[in-house]
């Protein structure tokens, strides 16, 4: 059974107000059989990421479609959402089991490329609805080491600590400095798992901090040792907005070796300014490594479509009506 934590991501609107959110998936304790995605994913234009992307057969949406073959929404959800590769979230502080769980997931992926969203830094979500994670920074670093040991050198994309930088304003300066140091160490530890470990750090999204501000946070957090920056996890900003914003961040960082990852899971109709299960949203571009842009390593579905933000249902709970609406809007 998956462990779930209700949560809310704070965001700023264009006028500077906070407000947008996401829910995430927990890590299953049993490793499923390997199953690559059925789409053809050519290598990205500039990235070193090896495809195809991995489709987790034990995701919530896959389990729902398997259990509800007669539901009138099932064919659309199965075709448009369950067939697509999505991130698996490591959201529980579970040092006793996380290494085995990660190793099992890497083994299940076989020759495909899994995406892990690592989410366990102390004072996560600034103590809000998504509070949790490791109890302190030494415990966090131990948890990260166990994850790295579980990777076993398998190719993997790691989305490291969504909102850890964009939402750090709740911390005092000493807290920010400690978080930056923790992320630097986490990047180094994860990258030590092997050359095919691709780590991306938090870039927020295009309606939050300025590119220069976000770049300063990233530079202080070891982005130079990572592979790049992710944005829009899991907001609704358009892909064009996020690519333009991400390129501005990269220009401000000034490292030509870094690239972008954009979450396109729910941005097909852009944002209406709401963050919690807003109506009228749509699936964005399918996950792909063939982005056609030298600066963009991948378009990924980091936030699993159909999993609630906390308004339509408990945060992280799969809601068929949400999934069907995203697939048909």
Structural topology:
Layout: H1 60-67, H2 74-82, E1 88-90, H3 98-109, E2 115-118, H4 137-151, E3 156-160, H5 173-191, E4 197-202, H6 211-220, E5 228-231, H7 239-253, E6 259-263, E7 296-300, H8 320-328
Parallel strand pairs: 1-2, 2-3, 3-4, 4-5, 5-6, 6-7
Structural features, described:
The protein is an alpha/beta fold and 329 residues long. It has one domain: TIM Barrel. Helices cover 29% and strands 10% of the residues. The protein contains eight helices and seven strands. The protein has helices at residues 60-67, 74-82, 98-109, 137-151, 173-191, 211-220, 239-253, 320-328, and strands at residues 88-90, 115-118, 156-160, 197-202, 228-231, 259-263, 296-300. Strands 1-2-3-4-5-6-7 form a seven-stranded parallel beta sheet, with helices on one face. Helix 5 links the parallel strand 3 (156-160) and strand 4 (197-202). Helix 3 (98-109) packs parallel to helix 4 (137-151). The chain is globular. Mean pLDDT is 87; it is low at 1-47.
Task: State the CATH class.
Answer: Alpha Beta
Unreliable spans are: 1-47
| Series of H and E elements | HHEHEHEHEHEHEEH
Structural class: alpha/beta
Strand content: 5-15%
Tell me the number of strands: 7
Spatial strand sequence of the major β-sheet? 1-2-3-4-5-6-7
Helix content: 25-40%
- Tell me the radius of gyration: 18 Å
Could you state the oligomeric state of the chains shown?
Answer: single chain
Number of helices: 8
CATH-level-2 architecture: Alpha-Beta Barrel
Instruction: Summarize the main sheet.
Output: 7 strands, parallel
N-to-C CA distance:
31 Å
Shape: globular
